[in-house]
C-alpha cells in the first residue's frame, strides 16, 4: 500500500485545509499589490487576518463541505466599487493561486466555482448595458 492509500481521511482533510489557506493567502498577497484590484481590496478590508480566515472558511465550505462559512458573499461584494474589468483580473490571479496550491481536482473545482461566481456577480451587479453595449448598473 502506498502513502495515499494509508492516509486517513482526516489527514487528507487537514492537508486540503492547509492548501486552501495557502491559496487564499497567496491570492490576496497578489491582489493587494495589483494595480487594478489592490485599491478595491485595500480600501474595503479593515482586518486582513479576519478576512483571510473568512475566505478560507468559504473555500473550505465549497470544497470540503465544512460548516464554518454561513454567509452570503454577493451582498458584501455588491457594496464594493467593482467594475466589470475587475472580474477577469480576479479570476486570473485566483486561478494562478488555486493551481499553485490546491491538488488538481480541488483546483479544478475551485476554479469552476470562481468562474461561476464571477459570471453571477457580474450579471447581478451589472444587469444592464449602456449605449455602447458595455455592462452597466443602470439602464442606459
List keywords for this structure.
mainly alpha, Globin-like, 3% strand, 140 residues, 69% helix, 7 helices, 2 strands, two-stranded antiparallel ribbon
How would you describe this protein?
69% of the residues lie in helices and 3% in strands. The chain has one domain: Globin-like. Strand 1 (128-129) and strand 2 (135-136) form a beta hairpin. Residues 1-8 have low confidence and may be disordered. The protein has helices spanning 3-6, 9-33, 38-44, 48-64, 73-78, 86-101, 104-125, and strands at residues 128-129, 135-136. The N and C termini lie far apart (64 Å). Helix 2 (9-33) crosses helix 3 (38-44), helix 2 packs across helix 4 and helix 2 (9-33) packs antiparallel against helix 6 (86-101). It has a two-stranded antiparallel ribbon.
Structural class per helix/strand content? mainly alpha
What is the CA-based Rg, rounded? 17 Å
**Second-tier CATH architecture:** Orthogonal Bundle
Shape verdict: globular
Question: What would the average pLDDT be, to the nearest integer?
Answer: 91
Per the CATH scheme, the topology name is Globin-like
- In total, how many domains does the architecture comprise? 1
Give helix and strand order, one letter per element, not per position: HHHHHHHEE
Question: In terms of topology, how is this protein built?
Answer:
Elements: H1 3-6, H2 9-33, H3 38-44, H4 48-64, H5 73-78, H6 86-101, H7 104-125, E1 128-129, E2 135-136
